[in-house]
Amino acid sequence: MSVRSFVIVGASGTVGRRLIPALIDAGCRVGLIGRDTEKLKGIFPGADVGGYADIGKTGGAGSTLLYLATINNDKDADYEAFKAVNVDLALATRDHAAAAGMERFVYFSSTHALDETNSSAYARSKRAAVELLGQNAPIDTRILYLPAVTGETLSGRLAVLNRLPGLVSRPLLSVLKALKPTVTIPDIVTELIALDDTRDDAPVVSTDQERNPFFVGLKWLMDFVSALAILLLLWWLMIAVWVVIKVQSPGPGIFSQTRIGRHGKPFTCYKFRTMYTSAPNVATHQVPISAVTPLGSFLRKSKVDELPQVFNILANQMSLVGPRPCLPSQTELIAERQARNVLSIKPGITGLAQVNDIDMSDPVRLAKWDQRYLKLRSLLFDIKLIIQTGLGRGRGDKIRPDRA
C-alpha cells in the first residue's frame, strides 16, 4: 500500500497539534504550511514546513491538503474576520492546491455549522465556505464535520476535567459524551486514511455512541420511562381513538405491519389504522390519498397514530428517536442504510429526517440524513428532536395525490 501524503494548513491549532503526530504514527507523510514557518518548526521539530507559496513543493501531486485553519466560534470577532480565514483563505488555498497538482482538498468544520438556526459569525462563515467550495471544484473537495475533540488531555470547556483524578474524570467524561457527540484523534485519522474508499459529500466524523455504556443505558432508560409514562397518562386516549376508528370504518383499530428493525431484522410495528382496509400494502408515499380515512388524516397530522408504537419501545424493538422503520420491500432504502451503517441502531418513532420533512420517496437522501443522525446522536440531541416533533415540526411521509 502506498504511503499517504498530507499537507496541513492550520497545524498550530489544538486539533492540528494532536492530529499531526497521530498521522505520522500511522505511517503517513506530513507537510506543514503556514504564515509563521519559524513557529511551526518550533512546534514540530524536523517537520517539512513551508509558506503558502511552497504548497507545491511541500505536497506535490497525489497529496491531500487538510485545511484546519479557522477562527473558532469562541473568538470575539466580526463576520468579515471570520470570512477572511474560514472562507476567502480556504478558497485561495484550494486553488493553490489544485495548481500544484494535489489530489484532494479537505475542509474541516465544527458540527455547529450544520444547525441552520445557528446564526453566529462562525457558523455562517463555515456554511458560506461549504457552499462556495462545492461550486466548480477544480479538485476533489471534501467536507468533514467534527464535534468536540477529546483525548487524554482535554481542551476548551472540557479542560476543567484535566484537574480531576482519573477515577472521577473518566466516568464523568463518559456521561458528558452521552449528552453531546464527540470524536477522538484516532477516529479522525481512520476517516482520513479511508478517503480513497469513501465518497460522502459532507460526513460527520464522531465516536460511535454504542461504545459508551452511559449513552446506551441512559437512552434505553429514557425510552422505557417515556413509553411507560405515555401508557399511564394517555391510556384513555388510546382506547378512545381505537373505539372511534372501529366505529368510523370497518376493520381493526390497530394496524400491524412488518418493518425492518435493527441489524435488518424484521419486526411487527403497531400504529392506529389511518387507512381503509383495502389500501395497498406499500410504502406510505406510494399510497393514494383516497385510501386515508377522514379520521386517519387527523391522526397522521397530529401524530397520534404513532402512539401504539410505545409497545414496540417496551419490547426493545424501537426507540423514541431513530431512523423511521421501512418495509421489507423497500430494498433500495435498506441497501443505502446498510451501506451507511444505519441499521446498526434501532428505528425510532421520530427522527432527524422526519423533522426535516424528508420522507421515504428519496431513499438515498433519506439514508444520508439517517447517517447524519447516527453520527450526531446524543441524549440532548434526542431531546431536541422530541421537542421539535411535539411542536409539530415535520409532517412525516407524504401521501401520494390521487391521479386524475
From TrEMBL:
<protein>
    <submittedName>
        <fullName>Sugar transferase involved in LPS biosynthesis (Colanic, teichoic acid)</fullName>
    </submittedName>
</protein>
<dbReference type="GO" id="GO:0000271">
    <property type="term" value="P:polysaccharide biosynthetic process"/>
</dbReference>
<dbReference type="InterPro" id="IPR036291">
    <property type="entry name" value="NAD(P)-bd_dom_sf"/>
</dbReference>
<keyword id="KW-0270">Exopolysaccharide synthesis</keyword>
<feature type="domain" description="Bacterial sugar transferase">
    <location>
        <begin position="219"/>
        <end position="389"/>
    </location>
</feature>
<dbReference type="Pfam" id="PF02397">
    <property type="entry name" value="Bac_transf"/>
</dbReference>
<dbReference type="InterPro" id="IPR003362">
    <property type="entry name" value="Bact_transf"/>
</dbReference>
<feature type="domain" description="NAD-dependent epimerase/dehydratase">
    <location>
        <begin position="7"/>
        <end position="133"/>
    </location>
</feature>
<dbReference type="GO" id="GO:0016780">
    <property type="term" value="F:phosphotransferase activity, for other substituted phosphate groups"/>
</dbReference>
<keyword id="KW-0812">Transmembrane</keyword>
<dbReference type="Pfam" id="PF01370">
    <property type="entry name" value="Epimerase"/>
</dbReference>
<keyword id="KW-0472">Membrane</keyword>
<keyword id="KW-0808">Transferase</keyword>
<feature type="transmembrane region" description="Helical">
    <location>
        <begin position="220"/>
        <end position="245"/>
    </location>
</feature>
<keyword id="KW-1133">Transmembrane helix</keyword>
<comment type="similarity">
    <text>Belongs to the bacterial sugar transferase family.</text>
</comment>
<dbReference type="InterPro" id="IPR001509">
    <property type="entry name" value="Epimerase_deHydtase"/>
</dbReference>
